[in-house]
Design brief:
Blueprint lengths: L32 H11 L10 H8 L3 H13 L3 E4 L4 E4 L1 H13 L2 H16 L2 E8 L2 E8 L14 E3 L4 H9 L2 H15 L3 H18 L2 E4 L6 E10 L4 E10 L5 H26 L1
Antiparallel strand pairs: 1-2, 3-4, 3-8, 4-5, 6-7, 7-8
Helix pairs in contact: 1-3, 2-3, 5-9, 6-8
Length: 280
């Protein structure tokens, strides 16, 4: 790991200003813009981003660079980011992971889910993961790896695209119709011209779930990876998570996903939902 050092002081230490506005800016007086922008910076880190600098964070979020500089300084001071001197960039700090860990612990999810997930990962030599939605992505909450060589080098905090991953499609399938319609409308705005093709695949995935109880994605969001997923519906559907199982697309054919791994992940999702309901 690179040696870390003192955090660079922002050039302008004034009040946070400028940047991409929250949709409710100027309308919702309860919305704290500075806090919202800080969280947007944390969301900007993708699954393959070890380090990001202020310029790239500004480009990804639309927040002006001087504002980004003040935000990253503050986030690093609080432990949500770590400044790496050799890179002159930031990486995610432990502080950013604590809320998710506390959510899992407080809800009893990790204690119940982890042994079941790990057992399936060992039995199938595949990666098993539990995720929750975050904007247009799915955020990994827990990941259990097989004993063999790792194909999916993903960890808690990693993100997968909601529209093209099995775990995202399964989450959408688990939603109540009204909520799903609202999320699909937001995904349409986000993806723009790509949406018609994505929507056709999503509709097929929703039909698959209605018929078989799981959704699959074969070499889509990543050509080297395939997986199958099922929704975990909690509190009578008031809260929905998603769980998947996956591995190398060269090893996991659509037939294996449909006839072997699909039924197993559906059973795990049902078992997990039932046990979490009993523990509530």
């Amino acid at each position: 790991m690179k040696r870390t050092t003192s955090i660079p002081q922002p050039a302008d230490a004034g009040l946070l200003s400028g940047g991409a506005a929250h949709p409710a800016d100027g309308e919702d007086r309860n919305f704290v813009t500075a806090l919202g922008r800080g969280l947007e910076l944390l969301r900007a880190f993708g699954p393959h981003d070890d380090f990001l600098g202020n310029a790239e964070l500004s480009r990804r979020t639309g927040i002006p660079r001087p504002t980004v500089s003040r935000l990253t300084y503050t986030l690093a001071s609080l432990g949500y980011l770590v400044y790496v001197e050799g890179q002159e960039k930031y990486r995610i700090g432990q502080g950013a992971l604590l809320p998710g860990q506390r959510y899992l612990s407080g809800a009893g999810i990790r204690d119940i889910a982890q042994p079941l997930m790990q057992s399936l990962a060992f039995a199938t030599d595949c990666t098993v993961a539990l995720a929750a939605p975050d904007r247009h992505d799915m955020l990994y909450l827990e990941v259990c790896q097989p004993r063999g060589a790792l194909v999916m080098r993903l960890t808690p905090g990693s993100r997968l695209p909601m529209a093209t991953s099995a775990i995202g499609r399964a989450w959408l399938a688990g939603l109540a119709p009204a909520r799903r319609t609202a999320v699909l409308a937001e995904l349409e705005r986000h993806h723009g011209p790509r949406w018609p093709g994505l929507r056709a695949k999503l509709d097929r995935a929703l039909r698959d779930h209605a018929r078989r109880g799981f959704c699959l994605a074969h070499a889509e969001w990543d050509r080297t990876v395939s997986g199958v997923a099922a929704p975990v519906c909690l509190q009578d559907g008031a809260e929905v998570l998603s769980i998947n199982i996956g591995g190398a697309s060269t090893r996991l054919s659509p037939e294996i996903l449909e006839t072997n791994l699909g039924p197993r992940i559906r059973e795990l999702a049902d078992t997990l939902a039932a046990r979490l309901w009993q523990s509530a």
